[in-house]
Amino acid sequence: MRVTTTLNGTKHVVDDVWEGESLLYLLRERVGLPGSKNACEQGECGSCTVYLDGLPSCACLVAAGQVNGREVTTVEGLADNTAEEPALHPVQQAFLECGAVQCGFCTPGLIVSTHDLLARNPEPSDPEIREALAGNLCRCTGYEKILDAVRLAAQRGTDEQGDR
Ligand code: FES
Ligand code: FES
User: Fold this and answer.
1) Residue whose CA is closest, atom 3 of ligand 2?
2) Percent of the chain surpassing pLDDT 70
3) 15-45 confidence digits (pLDDT tens)
4) How many A from CA of 17 to the centre of ligand 2?
5) CB of 141 within 8 A of CB of 100?
6) Which of 73, 98, 127, 153 is buried most, with the most CB atoms less than 10 Å from its CB?
């Protein structure tokens, strides 16, 4: 089947998609967006989290055919790639600075989930952060540095608001 979808703001037409193919496969193997990771392929770990029409979704659980005519944003799409010097999104930068990345398998999903959390709740409490990220599993960091990164990104977002 043919799937026409908008990926990170750009329209893509993908042919020969088979019925059992996941959105995650389409992203990673067909259109060259390997940021979303494939760790469990069962909707358990959150490493494949992307926005589907603005809502965080596990790309491994979405059939590629279901995104026909819809919009998908991946971790790659959060960075500002339009400038001469591409810039990380503040959430990505905070994860980098806080050392919240070890093997990196969980990181893309955590960044999308954190981006979504801060869009809904710019000043989350620690319990709210934990709840929002409960679907994103990390085997490496012990979560403390991830919490630091979310707090830093939130703080910077709040400072930015204050500067306006
Ligand atoms: S790979 Fe999709 S939830 Fe784990
Ligand atoms: S950094 Fe390895 S799973 Fe989170």
Assistant:
1) 138
2) 97
3) 999 989 999 999 999 999 999 999 999 999 9
4) 31
5) yes
6) 153
